[in-house]
Amino acid sequence: MSEINNQPVWLPPPFPTDGRTYLSNQQVVDNTRLLNAEEREYHQQLCIAAGRRVMPPCCKSVHISLFFDGTNNNEKRNTEIDTPPHPSNIARLYHASYRGEEAETAGYHSYYMPGVGTPFPEIGERDFSDEGLMYATGGEARINWALIRIVNAFSRELTKGKVNDDYAQSLIFDQLILPVGLHGSARRKAVFDGLFANLRRKVKYHQPKLLKVKLFIYGFSRGAAEARTFMNWLTDIFDTPEQAGEVQGPSLLGLPVCIEFVGLLDTVASVGIAHVAPQMDGHMGWADNTQALPDATRWPGLLKRCYHFVSAHEQRLCFPLDSVRRTNGTYPPGTVEVIYPGVHSDVGGGYSPGDQGKARQGEQLLSQITLHDMYSLAFNAGAPLTYPEQDVVNKFEHHHHYKIFSPLSKSEFYISQDVIQRFNAWRFTLNIAPEAETAAGEGYVPLTSSAPLEAVVEAQTAWLTAWRIGRYANGSYARQPFYQAAKAWSYDEDPQRYDENVRARQERQRKIELRRLNGEHQLPGEPIFDPAMNCRQLAEAAQEFAEDYRSGALTVGLARKSHSIAQLWLDDVAGKAVYVINVDDEAAEYQRIKTQATSLLNRLFADDTGRKVDDNEMARVCALFDEQIHDSRAWFMHSTLGAREMWSGYFRYRMIYSGDRANKAMTLFDIGKQGLNLVTGLFLFNLTANDHATAAQEKAVPVGNTSPVRRVNNVSESIIQAVREAIIRRSRKLLRDTLSGLPVPLASDRGNRQGSCCIIPVQGESGADTQIQTALTSPVRDVMWLRDEGARVLEIKWQQRKALVWKMMNEESGRAEV
């Protein structure tokens, strides 16, 4: 799958039957010693300087924990309002952190940033937003808010005050957020120097003496991408050598700074337009060149430990993974990337118990595994996290209430024995050598695999596809407990109930707006309506998979039944143009996944009826797919499109970025402007041997001066209906003959084969002669080079346009047009 020589990924160790929150006496002692390490060291220095044992000094370090949640995850909403509660793992870890007045007095500060697309009143976002969900709008403001939390923590320590929320919001939007294309390092430094000015004068003589700033950073999904950007932007506000004084290395206010622990869950940037659109990589705006972990050669000692848990089974094009590997394929010092079963939110958390009929009790969620494992790693690294009250803990002399699990945290860490057994059985699919298993020992010690991340993901995709063959292609899913349970989450399939729930949501939002007018300005809004249609979504997903499975490498996706006008247009019509300009090798991926999955089918199922094999471990693996692992594609975009993610499918590998490189090649194209005519023409050309396609071709959209977006929105129902009839009547053999071994023909027999598509209606009159594409580069995996080349091409085009306008301005005939 990848030709890059990458360092092997890590594998998770066996999960203990009693979970990872029941700590030994030594673990609690070690955590406490790490939390107080600087105080002991400073005391020792004073003793050495005095030549005798002196009284412990009044001093402490400042501990700052930052929690960046994932897209559409909102701790307050998911914990306090939603029924049943379903906070993400980031929110659960936040609940388990040291919080409250007593903790802040002791030097522990904990801050939570809601996921993009959800309310964050402190930065002026009161409502859920499609822009945040789709494009990660609001991510930059959240990162800047987190940076200002550092100032807030210092203010709490040095003045007992805090940064006013309105003032922080004005700083973010008036001074810190810059226009697209501009980099704000100098601006950021200037703004924070101003914020630190008064605090800098106080820190030197403050009591208790401040010794160090210790950061603990957590993030999931786009929140993980925000966390990575945060670390890079943090380096912009470090002290200059003059400001640092005698401190060697990174510092703030003359205090040494260290990122003690970073816990990331399945990083997805997808800022701007994600990889679902051809030639796009989702690293626009604040994610542009900010996802690499801080360079240890430039900032030695800044980052101590980083753990990145990644999904083994996510496949959506909108969710490409950003590995923590460097561009050269190696991992930074102290960095470990571990692969876990499940899709994106099976790793990061956030699924409701019972969603898609799976994990019908909260303790059955697969994400409880990663929650426990990340908690264990952070606690053992000295993170200020609470722990269950136990007899051994009560023996400690210095016992503080803020260090003990709250009832909420206790309930949020419950985990089922079924999940543990099935997870441990899944590890057999990793082919771990017995000697490596023995070497893992007790506790959380990840195992080094013999293969890079891409290869392990490829193997795991085959296992999940084998399960889908047994359940989806053979139809046995409908008889399984998870599908029967999903009926409880399918009430919006009733049109009357759907309309009632839409109106109810609108009424709740209306009341919120009225309360805001009456003074409750920060009141969060209602979530965007997401209808409960689990059974329909799963059934349509199973049908799509079965259709693709019975297709061929060159015709995959062409025989799908369309369930909505949007799906018909985006997948069946526009999808042909996307196939032309997308250099993902869909045919090769399809063939590889199908072949590998077929070879594993009898490892999971005894026959075509979906009966599990007698092997206990493999039966548990099958049960994990049945009862724990969700189908992220079945749900995604369904409420918006009435279908699944366009231009993709179940026979695709996930896009993985490592620094400036990717596991799939991309190229730069110059695309013609007449997008609507292009995609219609390409689709209709695929059906020229079909009489019904000819009828649709007669009704081709005429070339006009309106924008492509306007024309897409104004497509007539008659064209859609004509194309729909053509889809229904075509045969796979006819398509295979028409394609003649090519993914999509670039021109008709009567058109130009040098990159144009000539749409010829029945009357013989040319409807449009549209430039399809001009390849500007060869396929490459160097994403940064491709971006730079794209910027260079755009600059050349801009200069050409300016020259053309200038020429027209100097010609009398052209002035009116200008």
From TrEMBL:
Protein name from the UniProt record: DUF2235 domain-containing protein
Coiled coil (residue ranges): none
Superkingdom of origin: Bacteria
A matching Pfam family: T6SS_Tle1-like_C
Residues of the T6SS Phospholipase effector Tle1-like C-terminal domain: 420-669
Residue ranges of domain T6SS Phospholipase effector Tle1-like catalytic in the record: 65-236, 257-375
InterPro entries according to UniProt: Tle1-like_C, Tle1-like_cat
PANTHER family: PTHR33840, TLE1 PHOSPHOLIPASE DOMAIN-CONTAINING PROTEIN (PTHR33840:SF1)
